[in-house]
Amino acid sequence: MSFISYLVNGISLGSIYALIALGYTMVYGIAKMLNFAHGDIIMVGGFTVFTAMSTEWCPVWLSVVIGIIVCTLLGVIVEKVAYKPLRNASPLAVLITAIGVSYLLQNVALIIFGSASQSFTSVVKNVAPVTIGGVTISMETIISIVVSVIIMICLTFFINKTKAGKAMLAVSEDKGAAQLMGINVNSTISLTFAIGSALAGVASVLLCSSYPQISPYTGSMPGIKAFVAAVFGGIGSIPGAMIGGILLGVIENLSKAYISSQLSDAIVFLVLIVVLIVKPTGIMGKKINEKV
Prior knowledge:
The chain is mainly α. The chain contains 11 helices and 4 strands, in the order ααααβββααααβααα.
């Protein structure tokens, strides 16, 4: 029973990693850049929900909606201000800019909220856990798994069946050809950032509800681990991000339970190294041959 409990909690944590990883993998798959400020957008979403819930007039559901909207707008603003001018710059310049945006968001949060961790009230408070087959599962765990599965299904449908989703696929294949076919590349990339940041907003609520503390550094390690999950599953692959996130969460939770809580992070990165040695493209990544 203990093993099943650890497994379920690992799937719950992995579902949150998967939501964050979807943002990484969509931006990389379409814009071919790594947005390392993505983890800090989670932190901003968490503080937005925390602040809204602290007021008497704002109900929980509205606080969550406000948090997601703020994350979405922030993602679009960051893309327009920091990344769009570097659309044709070297990958190194974009990477340095992303790191700079990350530190900027962290330090603004430090100025406003201070460095001390604050208690976050779960959005599903006063809801009793569920016992299934002798295993007690918290409502936060159930909601994290269910929400992640629903978002994964909706996102897959959006990408493959809608006009905007097909435009994203076209831009990911060839920006120049997509532009010649009448697709607005800039708007498509902005939409990608908006969706990825909205997912970060959802992930911030689930993460802070499951682990009820928030600080300016809340998004740093989950952001890095979600990037690992995206690479693990095959960066650029949406199903790969989901699979990579869940596997990463399970590995981390079982490592804490059966090996060492202090070494769990090291074990996660060790597994990534092994996977990349065996299959450099990740679990569901595909090798791309470039024509010269």
